[in-house]
Amino acid sequence: MSRILGTDSTMSAVAKMVEGNMGAMEPLVRMLQEGRKIDPDDGLSGLSSILMLDTIGIYGTDIYVLYSDICNKDLAKTIAVIRSVQLGFFSSGLLKKACSYQDYSGRNIVPVDELYLKVKSVQPNFDLQDGVLHKGR
Fold it and tell me: What is the pLDDT of residue 130?
């Protein structure tokens, strides 16, 4: 069941998602700040990726695992993986399972580069910077 409600502010939605894990805060804040540049077709300026994580049931440490361990702190690839679930290219259940592993083995489950290219092939405006903008700081 989703945690984010229509009455939540952006700040309260992020707080619900991170479950106190500060490592999970970085990708969510970056999605809100930079998501529109990476995915200009996202009408919610990065918020749709956060809402999709909520729909899938990925919270706290699992968000950090997705961003850091599976996607190597590459924000565009993180958003692409989430978008690939929305587009039906990848299973939400499999993504949730991969994010639950804290030993880097989730990398073997999620074909990040392949999903990134699939998203770019159907969304021509996706990540026009091709790696310039989204790499972790």
Answer: 63
